[in-house]
Amino acid sequence: MSENRVIGSEHIEDARQRGRLIFEILPGDIVTSLARETAHRLGIELITGPIEKPTLARTDGKTSMGRSLYRRSPKWIAPDKGISSRAKRFSKISIVGAGGVGANISHLAANLDLSNEIAIVDIVPGLAAATALDLNHASGITRSSTKIVGSETLDLISGSDVVIVTAGRARSPGMTRSDLININKRVIQSTAEVIKNQSPSAIVIVITNPLDEMTMEMLTATGFPRERVLGMAGTLDSSRFRRSLAMAAGVKTADVEAITLGSHGDEMAPIISHSKIKGRSLERFLSTEEIEACSKDAISGGGQVVALKKMGSATIAPAHASIEILNHIRGAKNGSIPVSVMLEGEFGLNNVVLGVPAFLGLKGLISVEEIKLSPSELKALQNAAKAIQERLGLK
Ligand code: APR
């Protein structure tokens, strides 16, 4: 047992000199009235402890050594990922499907005021109009100047710069993304028909699952060039992976760069060779087992939400990931971003829509970034391509 301390004014002055703004008082400590006066005078808060300390992830000796050596190196400053002031404002964004994902995208997009108009469509009578009205009501507070309209008729999407498709059935517990293929294929086909006629130069972002398969279906059904049909998955999966790595390493998510490629499902490929914590390789912070656990956590992330919700799947993180893609399209963010696109020889793959790093711009895909992958990562990408093609009956 440690002895009770008597905290005098000299302790408080010492803490202040060391730049502290709080002083932890442990059970049994005696604090003199002069110490309290000094704390008040110097602006130091006396906090009743013990203050809960984060528990370190259990790890092997090599990793612990790496971490402690790292702490002696110069301070890491996370790169600024802010919005560029040169970003373009869209004329019109349309969102097909006003369910959980569609409503959250509309909400974020309206708040960011990144488009003159947002059109929301849903087959459920009144749902899209209600969402639009609800968002418009908020504009008295948010001061967003975006005009938001909603309807059951797909004609509302006419003249869009971007059409985001979330329409379809969401996963129920125990249901895989593949189970949804036949149900959601019909929704994609009917939506594609209207997009082709009403917004022939739009960029289409598909969110409906199974993602890679539905993006491929959208590409075929619209007949649009691959540059204008993108699938939103890798952006979301990468976010889940980053968060998982940050938790395991006990750092901020802003300190982690990490991507997942491949399919939006079991054949997802977390790319360890291009993932970094504070600019350094993952192995400097985490053991092989910990990295493996983070990969599994990212792969099962969507399923974890489904299991907890019982009805429906994730809505908030997918909406943020969609906004991230919009920000890359309008030039608000730079660099490549993982999206699902039709491959034309990149990574040695053809005739398959797959999550890969891509540069985006106002006309959609600029180019796929063919990053150097390790042999096992390339193999994972090839396996994902094969599985998607098999599910679509192409192999
Ligand atoms: N036209 C317009 N809206 C449609 C159509 C259609 N043909 N078919 C279905 N919808 C609407 C539904 O009425 C529903 O409101 O699509 C909406 C889907 O919303 P949710 O069921 O809440 O699903 P959500 O959680 O938003 O997920 C949407 O994204 O992540 C994926 O797997 C997920 O495929 C699902 C999609």
What form results from the Cα inertia axes?
globular
Unreliable spans are none
Fourth-level CATH superfamily of the largest domain: Lactate dehydrogenase/glycoside hydrolase, family 4, C-terminal
Q: Using the coordinates shown, work out and report the CATH topology of the largest domain.
A: L-2-Hydroxyisocaproate Dehydrogenase, Chain A, domain 2
Overall residue-averaged pLDDT value: 91
Helix count?
Answer: 12
How far the N terminus sits from the C terminus, by CA atoms, comes to 70 Å
Order of helices and strands: EHEEHEHEHEHEEHEHEHEEEHHHEEEH
Radius of gyration: 25 Å
Characterize the biggest β-sheet. 6 strands, parallel
Portion of residues in beta strands equals 15-25%
Give the helix level as a range of percent.
25-40%
Secondary-structure-based class equals alpha/beta
Name the bound molecules: adenosine-5-diphosphoribose
Counting DSSP E segments of at least 2 residues, the number of strands comes to 16
In total, the number of domains comes to 3
